[in-house]
Write a structure and sequence with these properties.
Rossmann fold; single chain; 309 residues; 14 strands; Alpha-Beta Plaits; elongated; six-stranded mixed beta sheet; four-stranded antiparallel beta sheet; alpha/beta
Length: 309
Amino acid sequence: MESIRVMNVSKSIEGRQILQDVSFSVKQGSVFGYLGPNGAGKTTTLRIMLNLLRPDSGEVLVEGVPLTDGGEQMKRFGVMLENNGLYLNRSARSNLSYFAKLYGVKDVDSAVKETLEMVGLLDRADEKVGKYSKGMKQKIGLARAVIHQPEILFLDEPSSGLDPEAQHAMRELIISLSKKGRKTIFINTHNLDEVQRICDHVGIIVAGRIRACNDLESLRSNFAKPQVEVEMEDDAHAQKAEQLLQPLSSYAGTQRDGRMLVVPVATADSPDLIAFLAGKGVRIRQVRSVDTSLEDIYLRTVGSTKGGA
């Protein structure tokens, strides 16, 4: 079942086309990563999905119902933007109590306590948010977004500016919200590693158009390049193997890094490669297939559209 469907959305601002016929869907319970270079249209898409900006054409459906100005649909959303809207001169407890009341939460004290426990800041609840670290502020920003138990969560660059430890903590919270909280989560981000670790669906927008959109495994399959990584006994054998393979068209594109070679050949054909090199006296330690990473998919998608609209 679809939680959100963006249908044929276009938007221009001050005469500049920002989005052009953008369509994608976010499945219920999924973690959807929305990627794209600066200026691609990610923020504009998010603003339209949150009903903060009207499209020139197209529409957004929430479980099949067009998104309107009505407050009932918006209550199902939880939002954490880069500017999280927290009051820095108030405590975390006071911030969350304030937003819980705005959302009409019935048992405010219990909701605040449970949410603070979830983000691991109950013991710091009465300190002013302005004294928090960046990572702690992000946690409270996430707590604010879920204080009213929304069904759909929108996160804008949730790990931006965080150190590795704080990034890990934020990822764990998002995964917990998805699996234990059973929330649909839409993440607007530049962080490829974050998306690869926690998202099951990915959309890539370039120059206002969706260029790739699918579950991560299908994208990997669609963009897969047959190649194997061959580890030689030492640099000398790797160099010899590279010299042997370079003149052969079937192994064109072979790359070497120290004693490692990446050879463009299907795993099923690697026995022929091994036999050829072994027959020339090259000593091989191991051969393994190379998986297509999200970075490969992203760079190929963005690179193939450079210069396009």
